[in-house]
Amino acid sequence: MAIHKLKPTEVADLIDNVPGRHADGGGLYLQIARPGQASWVYRHREKWRSLGPADECSIEEARDRADALRRAKREGKCPIQMLDAGSPVATGKTFADAMADYLKAKSPLWSDSNRDRELRRYEYLFGQIPEFTPLPLASIDQDAKNKALGAFEVGKKARTDLGYYIAAILRYAEEGKLLRVTDAAKAKAEPHPSMPYKDVPSFYKRLGEIDAVAARALQFMILSGLRTSELIGKRERGKWTKRPATWGDVTEEGGKLVLFRPGKVMKAKKDHTVPLTAAMIKLLGKRGKPDVALFEVTRDDAMLDTLRKGDGNGYDVHGFRASFNGWGDNETNYPKWLTQLCIAHDTRSATERAYSRTDVLERRREIMTAWSDYVNS
Predict the structure, then answer these.
(1) Can you tell me the distance from the alpha carbon of 252 to that of 40, in angstroms, rounded to the nearest whole number?
(2) For residue 144, what pLDDT is reported?
(3) Are 26 and 64 in contact (CB under 8 A)?
(4) For residue 188, pLDDT beyond 50
């Protein structure tokens, strides 16, 4: 079996100019959806799975992951089942390595009087979870984080601090950026990373076990790509500045249900129609009167609280839009402009919009249905 067919020096040129699948051997392929957009995929029999976007995963890292999958296959394991279950198959940099890099960059920002205390805090917290720090970065999913957080009781400061530290270290490893705040209690001041799309199905399932309106509203937001204020509205000084979505906004187009949101409540100030999937309709439940809110959530931060209760520590509600984008980029062949349109981001040029005056509702319905199926898988 020939492997390493692709030359590292030619990968960039392929990505920019030659769409399609290019075999590296041994089940590893470079899949180029369109010029400039590519990912590494692994094939086992007739099934394909993503190993990561090419702009984040180098050819060497992709080969390491493919090697690990081939070893697992020789041991009688199914590579596809391993990838679907989020089992560690990657090699390379571990969380401990990433934490050392992070502290090297972070500790000079602490005052001399606090530096030793801060370092002892990290040493103590991560000393309680010795099985977590040796994990390869690429294998750390939400389940791994939840297991680590389980070493401390829900609601305790140690658990909150640990969740914040893990998120900060992973962000630095991925983006090379430090969170600006140094106090975990002030973490709200910094936007949190979005949940990796592969972790969303298990998190969505946990939300379904929470009997609360805010949990169902958060599930609906994940599926629809709407922002918080675009779904539950926004109040300022006791008055609605953005009206919540009501049953009167649920109508039909082409014989199928949609949710209409007027431009005045949308960030882009343009009307937006959400094609309702079967999973979204199930969350809405029994139809109410036209002026009744779809989800009567009384506080703007209710869904953020629910996110944390579901062990979504370190993530932000708004970040699920990025999770959707990650899924669209890595798991589908839909055009980027079309997936962006699903979440009310129109990236088309003025000329393109002039020649395409529809909102491509049925194509967007296809994408949102595929996303709903993935999240509920």
Answers:
(1) 40
(2) 82
(3) no
(4) no
Q: Where are the domains of the chain?
A: 8-85, 95-190, 199-375
Cα 339 from Cα 126, distance rounded (Å):
39
Q: What distance, in Å, lies between the first and last C-alpha atoms of the chain? A: 34
Q: Which of 195, 185, 150, 147 is nearest to 165 (CA)?
A: 185
pLDDT of residue 190: 42
Q: What are the tens digits of pLDDT across the range 48-97? A: 888 888 888 889 888 888 888 887 787 777 888 777 766 544 445 788 88
In percent, the amount of the chain with pLDDT more than 70 equals 88
Q: Is 52 left (phi over 0), alpha (psi -120 to 50) or beta?
A: left
For the domain made up of 199-375, the CATH class stated in words is mainly alpha
Listed in sequence order, the residues at least 6 apart from 39 whose beta carbon sits closer than 8 Å to its beta carbon are 30, 31, 33, 50, 51, 52, 53, 54, 57, 329, 330
* Assigned CATH topology for domain 8-85: Double Stranded RNA Binding Domain (3.30.160)
CB-based contact 30:12 (threshold 8 Å): no
Q: From the centroid of its chain, how far is CA 318?
A: 10
